[in-house]
Specification:
With 174 residues, the chain is of the alpha+beta class. 36% of the residues lie in helices and 25% in strands. It has a single domain, classed as Histidine kinase-like ATPase, C-terminal domain (Heat Shock Protein 90). The protein is built from six helices and seven strands. Strands 2-4-5-7-6 form a five-stranded mixed beta sheet. Strands 1-3 form a two-stranded antiparallel ribbon. Strand 4 and strand 5 form a beta hairpin.
C-alpha cells in the first residue's frame, strides 16, 4: 500500500540509471523459479535484443514491476510462464505470458484499477489487495511507458506487456 501511495502522490524519487533490463528479467525469472519449482518459468531474450538491453531505468522499481507480473502469471498458470524481451535502439518491451485461463477481454482495463479483483473468491486464497497491477502501470508511467494486457497466442493464457523508451531524452537548452 505504501508503494502504491508513493507512486500516486506525485511519484517516487526516481534515480534513473543505465542498467541491463535483460539482467533484471533473468534475476526475476530465477527468483520466481525458486519459489515455484513445479512450474517452468523461462526468459526468452534473443541475441539481437540483448545488444540493446541497456536502458535508463530505476532498477528497483522495474524489478518490482516484472516481479509482480511474473508472480501473478505463475500464480494463475497451469505450469508454464514465458518472459519474452524485445529491445531495439528506441524501445524496450517485456511480455509475460502464461498458460492459465487468461483474462476476459472486457476486464483488460479493469485489472489495472487499484483494489480491483476479478474474482472475489480468489482474495481469500491468493491474498493481496488488488494493487500489484496498478503499481506495475504506475512504474511504467514514471518510465514514460505503458503496461497493457492481451491474450497469449503462444501459451493461451494472459499476456502482460511493458513498453517504454529505452533512453531518457537528452534535455536541450537553447
Amino acid at each position: 500500500i505504501l508503494t502504491y501511495a508513493r507512486l500516486e502522490q506525485g511519484g517516487p524519487v526516481f534515480a534513473l540509471q543505465e542498467k541491463s533490463v535483460s539482467d533484471i528479467v533473468r534475476q526475476v525469472v530465477s527468483e520466481q523459479q525458486m519459489i515455484r519449482p513445479d512450474h517452468t518459468i523461462e526468459a526468452d531474450i534473443d541475441d539481437e535484443s540483448e545488444r540493446w538491453s541497456l536502458s535508463d531505468v530505476e532498477p528497483r522499481y522495474l524489478h518490482r514491476a516484472v516481479q509482480n507480473l511474473v508472480g501473478n502469471a505463475a500464480r494463475y498458470a497451469a505450469g508454464r510462464v514465458k518472459v519474452h524481451c524485445q529491445f531495439d535502439e528506441d524501445n524496450c518491451r517485456i511480455d509475460v505470458e502464461d498458460d492459465g485461463p487468461g483474462i476476459p477481454e472486457e476486464d483488460w482495463e479493469k485489472v489495472f484499477t487499484a483494489f480491483a479483483r476479478l474474482d472475489d473468491s480468489r482474495t481469500r486464497t491468493s491474498g493481496g489487495y488488488g494493487l500489484g497491477l496498478s503499481i506495475v502501470r504506475r512504474i511504467l508511467y514514471w518510465h514514460g511507458g505503458q503496461a497493457f494486457v492481451s491474450r497469449s497466442d503462444e501459451l493461451g493464457g494472459a499476456r502482460f506487456s511493458l513498453v517504454w523508451p529505452r533512453k531518457k531524452p537528452v534535455e536541450h537548452t537553447l
